[in-house]
Write a structure and sequence with these properties.
heterodimer; A: 76% helix; 0% strand; B: Rossmann fold; OB fold (Dihydrolipoamide Acetyltransferase, E2P); 8 helices; elongated
């Protein structure tokens, strides 16, 4: 997949170099270059800053490249003061828990709404869809009460339970399931295939790219979620990375280079995921955009 | 396997899709359900496959009453217009799939699938995905998948409609060959009369949910039961001229005697005189006159359009005659391919 996208980039480079350079084109590239620089610079600044010493980070004029690029002091400090390893583990558990349960319920719900005939199907689905209009911050209050009543407050369950299903992802997947011709279902039925087997053997493998999109969107959302973990947890043992980072900011004092080291730790896993899966993310976003 | 359909009725709300349909299909035959769209032929097929159940009536496979039996117990193979292959599976996996559901051991599954692939001539592309095949090849795979579990009945729902003209002819011959080689009782649904004529043992012609005629293709053409059957079959379409019966003669609306005679039809009955293009004879001694509109040469034959009884009609003429526009010619009819139908009911008098 990566190789493929690289090829297309190379091709476009070739065709560009064959055409004569016009003024407009040069201007366009300059603007795009500046745009890219603006986007990348904060990341660059964060990562290089993480390797700088206290003195260097406050230096005026600032250094563009750290004096000692192998200075891991800040990372060591971050790991020592805040238990980032635990935060990381918690984030990972929440991530996997959400993805596995949410994908499972999404597949079942999307199949039911797309293929099974039952009374009130359309009404129920539109009711669920209308819930998408309720802002997330409003649901937090009821979710919090539920979690507290169930005595799950300040546990890892609290991070997973509210996100075990998603109307939005169900909607995306139902859109794909709807596009599968009915005759495939009939062909399987005539051969004696059960709905359950048809779903897992035919529908799900066909929906691979839609599912990948859903899983990725879900992963990003879970990994970055801040508000809910902040409300639902209050001890170090169950904190996730973003909230851990926030706590580090207040607990660790105003030391920019340490902050940057901590931020780098939080961001890097998602950057790696993005690099490997950007094709799915982009297509998923645009597809969701057309349908939503 | 012999199929018996007894007084099948299918209603959707207050719309009757199939009405009082009875027919028997002999074992090992290829029978076509033919008719224009909306005639109920697909509904009929869906009832045979168990996707739909009839409102009234009975369906028998041999002596088993299968009217309300679910699809998977009927032992049928189904082929769809859009092939309905599983796009993520290879050709081999597709053909194996019905056996996989039946829990046939893997080794036997592959063996049987390969044999089937040979029968339909796709043995060289077993590891390809359906997306890498042409339409005709995909349809071959679909047929193999339908046949691999050795069904008692093969149902084909407009299997050639998505193919281009040349492939369509090739594939219909292939379907016939496969059907003859396996000897499976086959029901083929189409709206294309030429397709139906070329491959069927028998044709069931339907209109608005009612069986019009069930016969061998040639009989359907030579001896249509009513005006609809005559209109539906044949290319070019049958010529129709309006007239009225007077003393056993069919008099055209323009007052000429058509020279066609009918018996036991009361005077004053409004009728259609229908005749096939090949049943027209150029006969300048005939008292029935017509005016030439145009001629077009179609290889060895010349098709001539002329005005008869106020209507433009067509007939095959001798190419030596060299007819010109507006020329007056004499016309008579052969004994075959000439019919008289009631103007209102379409009932056949001759």
């Amino acid at each position: 997949m990566l190789r493929k996208s690289r090829n297309t980039e190379m091709n476009s480079d070739n065709s560009a170099s064959r055409e004569p350079f016009s003024f407009g084109k040069i201007l366009m590239y300059i603007i795009l270059f500046i745009g890219a620089l603006v986007m990348i610079f904060p990341f660059y600044w964060m990562i290089t800053g993480a390797f700088k010493s206290k003195l260097e980070v406050n230096l005026i004029p600032p250094t563009l490249f750290p004096e000692n690029p192998f200075n891991l002091e800040n990372f060591i400090y971050a790991f020592k003061t805040a238990p980032f390893a635990i935060y990381f583990r918690n984030s990972l558990i929440a991530l996997l828990g959400c993805i596995v349960t949410c994908s499972f319920t999404t597949i079942l719900a999307a199949y039911a709404f797309s293929r099974l005939r039952f009374p009130g199907r359309e009404v129920i689905f539109s009711l669920l869809l209308s819930l998408m209009m309720v802002p997330y911050e409003m649901i937090i209050i009821t979710n919090y009460r539920t979690i507290v009543n169930w005595k799950l407050h300040n546990t890892l369950w609290a991070l997973i339970l509210p996100f075990m299903s998603s109307i939005f992802y169900t909607y995306i997947l139902k859109g794909f399931f709807d596009s599968v011709p009915e005759s495939l279902y009939q062909a399987a039925k005539v051969d004696g295939c059960s709905d359950w087997k048809y779903l897992w053997r035919v529908m799900v493998p066909m929906a691979k790219s839609s599912l990948a999109t859903i899983i990725l969107l879900n992963a990003i959302a879970t990994w970055n979620s801040f508000l809910w973990p902040m409300i639902a947890t209050n001890s170090k043992e169950v904190r996730t990375l973003p909230f851990g980072l926030y706590a580090f900011m207040t607990e660790g004092g105003q030391r920019n280079e340490r902050m940057m080291a901590a931020s780098t730790i939080v961001v890097i896993p998602m950057i790696i995921v993005f690099l490997f899966a950007r094709k799915y993310i982009i297509s998923g976003m645009s597809r969701g955009g057309i349908k939503g | 396997m012999k199929i018996r359909l007894e007084n099948i009725v299918k209603r959707f709300d207050d719309n009757t899709a199939v009405n009082d349909f009875s027919a028997e299909i002999e074992s090992g035959e290829l029978v076509t359900l033919l008719g224009p769209s909306g005639c109920g032929k697909s509904t009929m097929l869906n009832m045979l496959s168990g996707i739909l159940y009839p409102t009234e009536g009975k369906i028998y496979f041999d002596d088993d009453d299968v009217t309300y039996m679910s699809s998977e117990k009927r032992g049928i193979g189904l082929v769809f217009q859009n092939y309905a292959l599983y796009p993520h599976m290879t050709v081999l996996e597709n053909i194996c799939f019905p056996l996989e559901i039946k829990r046939v051991p893997k080794k036997e599954r592959i063996e049987r699938a390969k044999k089937m692939a040979e029968l339909v001539h796709v043995e060289g592309m077993l590891n390809r995905k359906p997306g890498q095949l042409s339409g005709g090849q995909q349809q071959r795979v679909a047929i193999a998948r339908a046949l691999v579990k050795e069904p008692r009945l093969l149902l084909l729902d407009e299997p050639l409609s998505n193919l281009d003209a040349r492939l369509r002819i090739e594939m219909r011959e292939e379907i016939r060959r496969i059907q003859l080689e396996t000897g499976v009782t086959t029901i083929f649904v189409t709206h294309d009369q030429e397709e139906a004529m070329s491959i069927s043992d028998h044709i069931i012609l339907m209109k608005l949910g009612v069986l019009q005629q069930y016969d061998k293709p040639q009989y359907l053409y030579d001896q249509p039961a009513n005006c609809f059957v005559a209109d539906f079959l044949g290319n070019p379409p049958i010529n129709k001229v309006e007239g009225v019966v007077e003393g056993g003669k069919v008099i055209l609306n323009t007052g000429e005697d058509s020279l066609v005679r009918v018996e036991n039809v009361p005077d004053g009955t409004k009728v259609y005189l229908s005749f096939r293009a090949e049943s027209v004879i150029l006969d300048n001694k005939s008292p029935l006159k017509a005016k030439v509109v145009m001629t077009s040469v179609m290889g060895k034959e010349v098709i001539t359009s002329f005005v008869l009884g106020g209507k433009e009609v067509r007939g095959y003429m001798n190419s030596d005659a060299e007819l010109e526009r507006d020329q007056e010619i004499g016309i008579s009819f052969k004994k075959t391919g000439v019919f008289v139908f009631d103007y209102e009911s379409g009932e056949r008098y001759l």
